[in-house]
Design a protein that fits this description.
With about 475 residues, the protein is α/β, with parallel strands linked by helices. The chain folds into 3 domains: about 10-180, Rossmann fold (3-Layer(aba) Sandwich); about 185-430, Orthogonal Bundle (N-(1-d-carboxylethyl)-l-norvaline Dehydrogenase, domain 2); about 440-470, Single alpha-helices involved in coiled-coils or other helix-helix interfaces (Up-down Bundle), CATH 1.20.5.320. It has 19 helices and 10 strands. The protein has an 8-stranded mixed beta sheet, sandwiched between helices. It has a two-stranded antiparallel sheet with strand order 8-9. The chain is globular and about 85 Å long. The structure holds 6-phosphogluconic acid. 6-phosphogluconic acid binds near residues 133, 190, 263 and 267. 6-phosphogluconic acid binds near residues 267 and 366.
Length: about 475
């Protein structure tokens, strides 16, 4: 008897691929699986236990492709970059018109756009899909940001909706636009993730270094914040991490971890794209930069006894102030992310739906938080000038919380505790609330040394001034 064909194929049985394959099987789909190292396949099927009856293992790529229902839907969970290009080249001749291949990794959206273009006109389809939520999310309900054609989405939708996280019954997956839209939105999600993590770490820093609190005590405070407007996955994770003990030493686990952060690139891509689009996501940039500085551990250790100047006595902000400061800064970082999405949507013609993006970020993904539902609500109303911070409900929240952010940033500056992301968020807020900024002076400087010209406040056109000679 020949085996029934599979609904979807998952290529790549690493952590995320395995978890997604099991999730599909759990939701009643037949899943074909394969892996470059074929000796991973049998253990995976064995570990699937009762779900193994829904899994169709294949030892070779042709066998894998042949085991799928047509039009085929194949999800690749392999390293982004060159391996994906090589895979496309190998698999394309085995596919038929109408088939869709999906890159579910954290790919650079420029690569996704290029690959989408490569396949367009061939009758075969390429989808870039951002998947958020880590291993647990992938297994039990991720948030997914999908790009590509309507044809591919029609094929993928029932399966993606079945495995996605749910918020009030609403699946956290959406087709957001053509070509690289899904991967771009995932990139910005990660940029916001970087900022949120950094801002939480800055609050930890001021409590640890300014107030001398222990890690478990800070963890307890964060745990309490889970009952308020800061409720979020990242606060939950942080609270638990700060209260964990190292079994080897009995010390708080975080005290035994080197203060050097890794990064795989999505935060950096967010910042690069923001700058290319004439934007600045400075709260996110500060977070990416902070990871960079964190890696210069030896230099920082050498600098500690040398860079001692200029500290000023200050109280450490109260716990309530820190909570409000974090809330304000979290709003600002998200608002920068959404502003960047708006700029990219215009540039690449994606018509991104910010309500839908907020909705699919409410569950499953790493940045899920109580705020995302407020953002979804705000995007349903009028949004002046594409700025979330100008939505009435959001600017009202900021009005309540920004005074605490000011006090916190001021205290950090006085005490010499670095708050790069919190202070960047505040600087942006203050830039935005100045109808008249200081770029008139920048224009004067540019015209002075390079005759670059400027606009005048009293009439239209481009002008140059006759500047005095320098003595
Ligand atoms: C997610 C995460 C995930 C990312 C990790 C690590 O949404 O599930 O964003 O995709 O890979 O968070 O990223 P860094 O190594 O760059 O910190």
């Amino acid at each position: 008897m020949t085996q029934a064909k599979a609904d979807i194929g998952v290529y790549g049985l690493g952590t995320m691929g395995s978890a997604l394959a099991l999730n599909f099987a759990d939701k009643g789909f037949r899943v074909a699986v394969t892996n470059r190292e074929t000796d991973w396949i049998a253990p995976f099927v064995e570990e699937a236990g009762p779900l193994s009856s829904a899994i169709v293992p294949a030892q070779t790529l042709p066998e894998f492709v042949a085991s799928l229902k047509t039009p085929r839907t194949i999800l690749f969970m392999i390293p982004s970059g060159a391996p994906m290009d090589a895979m496309i080249e190998t698999v394309l001749p085995l596919l038929d018109e109408g088939d869709t291949i999906i890159d579910g990794g954290n790919a650079d959206f420029h690569d996704t756009r290029r690959r989408f273009d490569l396949l367009s006109g061939t009758g075969k389809h390429f989808v870039g899909m951002g998947v958020s939520g880590g291993e647990k999310g992938a297994r039990h309900g991720p948030s997914m940001m999908v790009g590509g054609t309507d044809h591919s989405w029609a094929q993928l939708k029932p399966m993606a909706e079945a495995i996605a996280a749910r918020f009030d019954g609403n699946p956290c997956v959406a087709h957001l636009g053509s070509d690289g839209a899904g991967h771009f939105v995932k990139t910005v999600h990660n940029g916001i993730e970087y900022a949120d993590m950094q801002m939480i770490a800055e609050v930890y820093g001021i409590l640890r270094d300014g107030a001398g609190w222990t890690a478990p005590r800070i963890g307890q405070l964060f745990e309490n914040w889970q009952d308020g407007p800061l409720a979020s996955y990242l606060i939950e994770v942080t609270a638990a991490a700060l209260q964990a003990t190292d079994p080897e030493t009995g010390q708080p686990m975080v005290d035994m971890i080197k203060d050097r952060a890794g990064q795989k690139g999505t935060g950096r891509w967010t910042v690069i794209e923001a700058l290319k689009l004439g934007q600045s996501a400075n709260a996110i940039e500060a977070a990416v930069g902070a990871r960079g500085w964190s890696s210069e551990k030896t230099a920082r250790q050498a600098a500690q006894p040398l860079l001692t100047a200029g500290l000023i006595d200050s109280d450490v902000p109260t716990a309530d102030d820190l909570a409000d400061a974090l809330l304000a800064a979290r709003i600002l970082a998200h608002a920068q992310g959404f502003r960047l999405l708006a700029a990219a949507s215009d540039e690449f013609d994606w018509s991104l739906d910010f309500t839908r993006i907020s909705e699919i970020w409410r569950a499953g993904c790493i940045i899920r938080s109580a705020l995302l539902d407020d953002f979804a609500q705000a995007f349903r109303g009028a949004l002046p000038h594409d700025h979330l911070i100008l939505a009435p409900a959001i600017s009202a929240k900021l009005a309540d919380a920004v005074p605490a952010l000011r006090r916190t940033v001021a205290a950090g500056a006085a005490l010499g505790t670095p708050l790069p992301s919190l202070s960047a968020g505040l600087a942006w807020y203050d830039s935005m609330r100045h109808g008249r900024g200081t770029a008139n002076l920048i224009q004067a400087q540019r015209d002075f040394f390079g005759a670059h010209g400027f606009e005048r406040t009293d009439k239209d056109g481009k002008f140059n001034a006759v500047w005095p000679d320098l003595k």
